[in-house]
Amino acid sequence: VISRGGVWVNEPVKANAPSDAFLISGFDNRNLHLSHSGAEPATIALEVDREGDGRWTSFKSVTVSSTRPIWLDLSGLGEAVWMRLSSDRELTGATGWFAMSRNDSRTDIS
Q1: Distance between alpha carbon 27 and the CA centroid of its chain, in Å?
Q2: CB 69 within 8 Å of CB 35
Q3: What pLDDT, on a 0 to 100 scale, did the predictor assign at position 75?
Q4: Burial class (CB in 10 A: 0-12, 13-18, 19+), 25
Q5: How far is CA 42 from CA 20, 45, 68, in A?
Q6: Which residues are CB-contacts of 24 (< 8 A; sequence separation ≥ 6)?
Q7: Does residue 14 carry a pLDDT above 80?
Q8: Are the beta carbons of 84 and 96 closer than 8 angstroms?
Q9: Measured between alpha carbons, how far is 88 from 86 in angstroms, rounded to an integer?
Q10: Is pLDDT of 110 > 80?
Q11: Which of its termini does the chain have fewer beta carbons within 10 Å around, N or C?
Q12: Model confidence pLDDT, tens digit, residues 24-76
């Protein structure tokens, strides 16, 4: 099982405005690509709702420059249902793209 999708896809982002939430529950492997085309580095806050009850807590913050997109391994996240992002400044061309999968436990039958 895989899941891919973005809360931002090459779009403008307002400062300190949370993105839509992205469902991250049920995956063994979770990754996030962050990039933007703004002039200045931006600090992107990652928040999680661990129980699916609307209580958001900070997971981590990362600094992203326009010249160096980053790929985050979210394996240390632990249990969580939803994740959302926000930026400390207005951004242009922002992308927050998730790629997740479950471990494949099928056996080879050949």
Answers
A1: 13
A2: yes
A3: 84
A4: middle
A5: 19, 10, 11
A6: 30, 48, 74, 77, 80, 81, 82, 83, 98, 100
A7: yes
A8: no
A9: 7
A10: no
A11: C
A12: 999 999 999 999 999 999 999 999 999 999 999 999 999 999 999 999 999 88
CB 48 within 8 A of CB 77: yes
pLDDT tens per residue, range 71-94: 999 988 989 999 999 999 999 999
What is the reported pTM? 0.90
Q: Where are the beta strands (DSSP E) in 1-110?
A: 2-13, 22-23, 29-35, 42-49, 56-64, 70-73, 82-87, 91-101
